[in-house]
Amino acid sequence: MSPLIETIGVGKSYGGVVALRDVSMVVEPGEVTCVLGDNGAGKSTLIKILAGVHRHDTGELRVGGEAVRFASPREALDRGIATVYQDLAVVPLMSVWRNFVLGAEPTRGIGPIRLLDRARALRTTRNALSDMGIELDDLEQPVGTLSGGQRQCVAVARAVHYGAKVLILDEPTAALGVKQAGVVLRYVVQARDRGLGVILITHNPHHAYPVGDRFVLLERGTVTGSYRKSEIDVNELTRQMAGGAELEALQHELQRVVRP
């Protein structure tokens, strides 16, 4: 069986600036592929290529074994690739249930006269959230009043409910406390266990390692390492993520400076 997503030597440039160079990775069903890197590593560019925002310049993007060049995010979504961005595309003053069905509103009526089926929308939202183990007391409350972790969880549940095969999460724990980050990661595992391929974009190896099955390290647009979980531990992942050799050299230099 072909991977859900595979990139083979993918590259992207903006004018004379190379954002990605020769990036290869695979996303399998029922696995979490973690893409790690600091700011400027190329994570955002990779997301935008996979989500259909930008087209790659070189290499090949395959979805289900078929080479594709998405012309729009709609095309990616139609192929089952759902992206939850860090800033969350929600309407803060709109209710939880209204945000959940936004763009896929159930209607009722006869012929061309259709009205929003509010009761069905509420039922759909409550059932989908409950199915993921998410309990909210009031679906009428504005989504902007939820905590960051709750908003992330609602977004994950929405993507799962509407048939995503691949779920891309852009730094979902970046602005969260320890407890809320743990809640979000729990739902990442739930999505994986439902057979989705999950791409977790993060700069935090301690969030990535507990849930990840594969780890792809990006630095300045290139892959500096690609590992299965059995091939690397969290300490080595952290060391490579932090630029191990550079930090060791800096440590020796600082020791010489402070030595009397």
Q: Can you walk me through this structure?
A:
It comes from Nocardia aurantia. The structure is a single chain. The chain has helices at 43-50, 73-78, 96-100, 118-131, 148-161, 178-193, 205-211, 234-241, 244-258; strands at 5-14, 17-27, 32-36, 58-63, 66-68, 81-84, 107-110, 113-116, 166-170, 197-202, 214-219, 222-228. It is α/β, with parallel strands linked by helices. It has one domain: Rossmann fold (3-Layer(aba) Sandwich), CATH 3.40.50. Strands 6-9-10-3-11-12 form a six-stranded mixed beta sheet, sandwiched between helices. Helix 5 (148-161) runs parallel beside helix 6.
Structural class of the secondary structure composition?
A: alpha/beta
Task: Could you tell me the CATH topology label.
Answer: Rossmann fold
**Rg for CA atoms:** 20 Å
**How does the overall form come out from the CA principal axes?**
globular
Strand order of the largest sheet: 6-9-10-3-11-12
Question: Largest sheet at a glance?
Answer: 6 strands, mixed
The number of domains is 1
Work out the strand percent. 25-35%
Distance between the termini: 63 Å
Low-confidence stretches: none
What is the ordering of alpha helices and beta strands? EEEHEEHEHEEHHEHEHEEHH
- Considering the protein shown, what is the CATH homologous superfamily? P-loop containing nucleotide triphosphate hydrolases
Q: How many β strands by DSSP?
A: 12
Tell me what the CATH architecture is.
3-Layer(aba) Sandwich
**Mean pLDDT rating:** 88
Number of helices: 9
Write down the CATH class: Alpha Beta
Q: Estimate the helix proportion, in percent.
A: 25-40%
